[in-house]
Amino acid sequence: MCGRFSLRVAQEEIEQLEGHDASPAEWERRDNFVPRYNIAPHTHVPVLRRREHNNSEVILSTMKWGLVPHYAKFEDKSLSTTNARAESLVDGGGMWGSIKGAKRCAIPCQGYYEWLTKGKSKLPHFIKPKDGRLLLMAGLWDVVQLQGASHNVSLLRSHHFIDQSEPLWTFTVVTTTANSAMSWLHDRQPVILHTPEALAVWLDTSSQKWSTDLVKLLGPTKYPLDCYQVPPEVGKVGTESPTFIEPVATRKDGIQAMFAKQKPKAASSSSSQVRVASPQKQAPKRKHGSESEDEIEILDGPPSPKKAQHLQPTPSPKAKEA
Fold first, then answer.
1. pTM for this structure?
2. InterPro entries, per this entry (predicted)?
3. Taking the domains of the chain in order of start, what are their residue ranges?
4. Residue 75 CB contacts under 8 Å (≥ 6 apart), including other chains
5. Predicted pLDDT of residue 280
């Protein structure tokens, strides 16, 4: 699965896409994107796609993560469309069947996060290309003109919808079986478009059809990746810090941050007080069959005031959302 990734780089670096042989002619809705180390679902990020009426032209288009199909009347946030399983694309049908032939995209990122499950704990890891390039994840996109922005039951029963003047552009990340080098971490990983040839095939929607050449891209690749444990604070949506993409061992408190549970310190002979470890947050309940994980268990207590200075949330982009 892929439920979190990082793209905190200069916009010029995104536009250049060094090493991918792609030169976007335009960046639609550029101002809707805010660079972040901790990108979660429902965030607006740039994706690479072909222009609808000129398939030879590649453009960047800022879209909201979590696909809303073109036939939707309102944005139902109970749906899990953060990821699309590659197997579902191959089998055909379903909600992906109507868009996989004509609406494919690639999502640039520095790398993505995955959580290693150890007993009741989840240890966050960051996965990035060894060669330092931006990683391109395969995706699907769609656009819809919503009649309403709420899935509130009372509003639906009264057939009262809120007018939407702007279309909503959204995307999903395609995932596949993890390769042998990453299967110890999780059984799923994003489909990675690691060569210019793979990117060109995936973005070529001139035929408006699905093909065997596209199916070949959906398997796990052996693209060289670095993987290391990172601070548990990344599990909280809205937190931001450059340390989120750095190995936890390089932090000054690296040894402490590496372990989920801290033993309480025994009281000294001169004090009757005992310092108890911060209480653990209850692990979230995951939806059946969902590959989306917006909230990850925080492995240690709230950060100290000193740490909190580095963990201030980045303001959300001022975009029109459904």
1. 0.75
2. SRAP (IPR003738), SRAP-like (IPR036590)
3. 1-322
4. 68, 146, 149, 150, 151, 168, 322
5. 43
